[in-house]
Structure formats: C-alpha cells, structure tokens
Amino acid sequence: MPTSEKTVIWAGTARRLTPTFAGEIRGLDLSRPLSDADFERVRALFLEHAVLVFRDQDLDDAALLAFTARFGPMDIHHLAEHLKKSQPEIRILSNDKKEGEYVGAHKSGMVWHTDQSFKERPMLATFLLGDDCPPEGGDTQFANMTAAYAALPGAMKERIDGLVAIHDRNFSYAERYPDRPPLTPEQLKEVPPVSHPLVRRHPETGQLGLFLALSDIRDIEGMDRAAALALVDELIDFATQDAFVYSHKWRDGDLVVWDNRCTMHRATPYNDHKYRRYMRRTQVRGDRPAAP
Ligand SMILES: O=C(O)CCC(=O)C(=O)O
Ligand SMILES: [Fe+2]
Known about the structure:
By secondary structure, the protein is α+β, with helices and mostly antiparallel strands. It has helices at 3-6, 36-49, 61-69, 145-151, 154-160, 173-176, 185-190, 225-239; strands at residues 15-16, 23-25, 51-54, 91-94, 97-98, 101-102, 123-132, 140-144, 164-167, 194-197, 199-201, 208-210, 217-220, 245-248, 255-259, 263-267, 278-285. The N and C termini lie far apart (45 Å). Fe (ii) ion binds next to loops. The site of fe (ii) ion has 4 residues, from loops.
C-alpha cells in the first residue's frame, strides 16, 4: 500500500463515493480500541452514508468482533457450516477449498437482498472484511433504497402504500443453492415466514425506504403470487438503476459496513476460481421493520 495512504490522519470525516451515499474512511486503525468520541463520529457517518468503506485494516478476529459489538447485539448466522468453529459470530465467505471442501460460503448473496430480511428482526448492519480480494470479479454492489423510494413516481408510491410482504427463507432456497443440503427442520424452525412492510421508516434517520429482497419475498398480502413477484421485480429493477448503486471494488484490508435498513446489496460472481476471495463477516441484529 502506498505510504501516502498509510499516513492519512483520521479527521472524523468520510469521502463521498457516489452523489447520494457511501463514504470512504481512511487513516482510522480499527485494530485499536476506538475512543467513545471517535465511535460516535463513526456512528454518525454510518447513518449519513449508509455504506462505509474503511481502508487499510489489519484486524484479527477479536478486533473485528469488538468493533462489530459496538453497533449492537451480534447475531449468529443460522447456517452453521460456514461459521468459524472458534468464533461462531464470524462467517467465512470464500471460493477457497481445503482438502476438496469449501472453507466457507462460496455463493452467498448473489441476488439483490437485505441481510436476513426473512427474520422478524433483520440485520441492522453487516461487516465484511476483505482479507484476500480478487483483482476482478467479486465486487459488492449496494443500492440506496432511500433515494430509490424518493424517486418513485407518485402513482407507484400510492400503489405500494401499506403493502406487506411475506419473506420466506425457504421459498427459493433449493433453486438458488442446488449444491447445499436442504434446510433442516431445526434450521427451518429458526426462520419461519415473516411479514414486513414494503416501505419502512428508518428507526434512526426517520427516512422512508423500500424494503426488498429478490428471492426471499414469497408473497405480498392480498395479492396473487405472480402479480406480487412481478411488482417486486419492477421495484428492484427501479431501485438498482446506476443512479442508486455503488459498486465496491475490493482491496485487501477493506472493511465495508452497511446499513441494511436503507440499502440492498449483492455480490457479483467470483466462483470461477480464477482468483481466491476470502472474507470474514459479522452482523448486528436490528429492530422489527416499521411501516411509515
Ligand atoms: O460476498 C459479498 O460480496 C456479499 C455477500 C453478502 O450478501 C453478505 O455478506 O451479506
Ligand atoms: Fe448479504
């Protein structure tokens, strides 16, 4: 890494990465405990930008967990096979194999979604640390759901006003993950279908945003399924126009933190094995999404 980047001094600000959201923070070393004042600044920038990219981080598991925990209660992912044995709060995403077996989830999150939208309390924030990042492929793309909602034509806002979606982890799971075993009865018990408003109010900023997930929404209450899924597709197409999207090109040592209450994201493919991709991931649970 160029020395000039290493010597940047944290001045409590972030550099905007798109006109409407996403910010880059340099010069802040998260391997050391943050003062309360610095954390308050980071928390404010998180609300302001919705996606924060912290460059040049060198974090062990303990430091990643300590930083994550400052945002709220950590959540353990319901798919145990991709969790670190020693630290189940850390999930591994990687296309790497050891003795013929994948060392983590190698095909996770490749359609537009918000993390664990199928839970009663979906994730507030997700933390993804790029330990080994490919020079091409495997970007993470984010869509600004606040800006997308604000830009919807009035007739569409009226049409979706008050609609409630049913999110169901098991709806398209087998189709999306043909090489994973089906969810076990115990896993299914942890993720029963749940209803969430299609438009939610952010509990901290008060802003309205679309709350969508491509393959986890199974139905919209009071609509037939084909019409409901067509509406979800239409809204996702609208929300993922270039004007609302930030595509993150990973560099080793990037920690990206995103607010799932006002963004959607997906990974672009990286499982062609051309380059290794290895990430550690943690997540913090949020509130039950609230209708406006
Ligand atoms: O691998 C990525 O780029 C993102 C995967 C994802 O959706 C997640 O970690 O929540
Ligand atoms: Fe995700």
